[in-house]
Design a protein that fits this description.
Strand content: 15-25%
Structural class: alpha+beta
Shape: elongated
Largest sheet: 2 strands, parallel
Strand order of the largest sheet: 1-2
Order of helices and strands: EHE
């Protein structure tokens, strides 16, 4: 039986988790609230 995992958040942690699970032959779906991802850098 194959495992399936839903990951909420397509940030660095969510994408890394998805890749690590894929390497273990676990299916994932990554959900993100926004339709496009634009990384930002916050500085003071």
């Amino acid at each position: 039986m194959r495992a399936q995992v839903g990951i909420i958040g397509a940030g660095p942690s969510g994408l890394l988790l998805s890749q690590l699970l894929h390497l273990q032959d676990i299916d994932t779906i990554v959900l993100e609230r926004r339709s496009s991802y634009q990384p930002t850098i916050n500085t003071l």
